[in-house]
Write a structure and sequence with these properties.
This protein is 33% helix and 4% strand. The protein has three domains: 328 residues, Orthogonal Bundle (Cytochrome Bc1 Complex, Chain D, domain 2), CATH 1.10.760.10; 49 residues, no CATH class; 66 residues, Membrane-bound Lytic Murein Transglycosylase D, Chain A, CATH 3.10.350. The strands form three sheets. It has a three-stranded antiparallel beta sheet with strand order 3-4-5, with no helix packed on it. It has a two-stranded antiparallel sheet with strand order 1-2. The protein is mainly alpha-helical. The N terminus is likely disordered. Bound molecules: heme C (HEC) (2 copies).
Amino acid sequence: MSIRGTYAAMTLIVLGTAAHAAGPLQGIQADDVAQADPAIVELGKLLFFDPRLSGDASTACSDCHNPSTGWSDAAELARGYPGTMHWRNSQTIVNMGFMTGGFHWDSGLNSLTDQVHDAMGAGFVANIDTILGEERLRQIPEYEDRFWAIWQEPPTQDRIAESIAAYERSIISADSPFDQYMAGQNWAMTDSAKRGLGLFSGKANCSACHSGSLATDQQFHNTSVPPNAGLAEDPLRQVTFRYLMRVKGLEPAVYEGLDRDPGRYLATQQPEDLGKFRTPPLRYLKYTAPYMHNGTFYTLEEVVDFYNAGGTPDAFGTKSPLIRPLGLTQREKADLVAFLNSMSGSEVLEDVPKLPEYGIRQFPHSAERVTVASLGGRAPQASPATASVAGSDVIAPSENTLTLVPKSNDAKKSVTPATQAQEQSQDGTDRFVLVEAGETLGTIARRIYGDGRQFQKLFQANRDLLRNPNDLTPGMVLRVPQ
Ligand code: HEC
Ligand code: HEC
């Protein structure tokens, strides 16, 4: 324990509080993450699980950050967009809202929103073109309505990233035995874990790098983690690895000679950054094996053995002097593992939400219908009363306008007899509507008025029931103003 930590501990004892001090490690407070509007978080959740935000509609964020495998995946090295393989271990997204430094194993990205743009655009992750993604969402009425309801604008890539990042910030694990212990609940940690905490901040000196409330200094170190043969020997992973090195501008003389992940060097190209990785948080380890940037260790026992041995011979000449043989006994190693486990709380689970379906988009949502006149053109002068354009009837042009009316009336068929029946008048004046599963005020407004933006009117008329526009629950009966 550092001198400062000891001093803090003494002060606390003097003040008579029950809180503990753990050297540079701290407990975590869920409230420390500012939470966005629940409507944005809810939208972000749908998008996080929606594979249509990948080029071939196959790969959602949740495929590599799966709640049931620690919001990561269970592989040493991640899968990739179909036809590719990723070259690094997928990281958990739990507690991302607490991270103030960069993201990824090498912190190559500065913000959570940048990270979303990067993941969506990367050819080996989600591989989707920005405009294609926006237009996909525009053909899914519920998404269109949600974006209008929140921002009064159609889906845009920036709002997509903002929503997904807001959802990620809502995934928090702050209830670990260690946090309870730090809050003064002495019983929360076993004696073995308490001894492990002493070693973590003392003899084993893990807290030299694993400090703060997430157990990371968010700095870069070479701990000499051995390479994963799966990278060198898998042609598909080599494709991704070499592609990235070239995209980042590494010279052939450098990338031809790299048989392993150069870590932070990829982001900075500073020789002293070779082999360094961002110290990862240690708050959810129970659920996120295998460990390290390349998934090389499957158990925490293996990790502790690795550190106890002082790491491995260094490939780059940048190994941290803090990584040296620790001389831990069997019991000390077991205590350290017990402490690492005590930093994980209960499993944060989430059911895959029911995703909204493609539907025929009501036209127009925002703009005026295009006519010859609206575009500044001129209608034909002496033309026949009606002409035929493939798939449409052309209504007789009047003055400068020409209106195309779709021949198919399918758009109107989305109101089923069942939904109409629910809108029966109850006393002759007021109308009511029954909220169905998955509906938003926007979709209801569209159903009733043919215009999703009228959701405000519905919201105002039902303020006695709704605190905010997204407070809907299936089975609720809403008043429908004329
Ligand atoms: C094909 C698998 C895959 C998909 C799909 C994927 N990721 Fe990742 N994710 C990874 C891998 C691998 C890393 C580590 C990347 C690195 O270090 O270069 C990562 C890293 C991250 C991180 C950084 C965590 C940290 O501790 O810094 C966040 C946040 C994240 N992903 C969110 C997302 C979001 C949001 C999406 C969807 C838009 C997404 N990912 C899609 C595999 C994937
Ligand atoms: C010199 C700084 C430093 C010290 C000291 C250090 N670590 Fe680490 N730790 C790191 C870095 C950097 C990584 C990521 C390395 C990589 O992926 O190649 C890491 C990774 C880990 C991981 C894997 C986490 C994951 O999500 O994959 C665990 C567990 C861990 N360290 C525990 C410990 C323990 C226990 C100690 C003390 C015995 C310790 N560390 C000492 C910097 C350090």
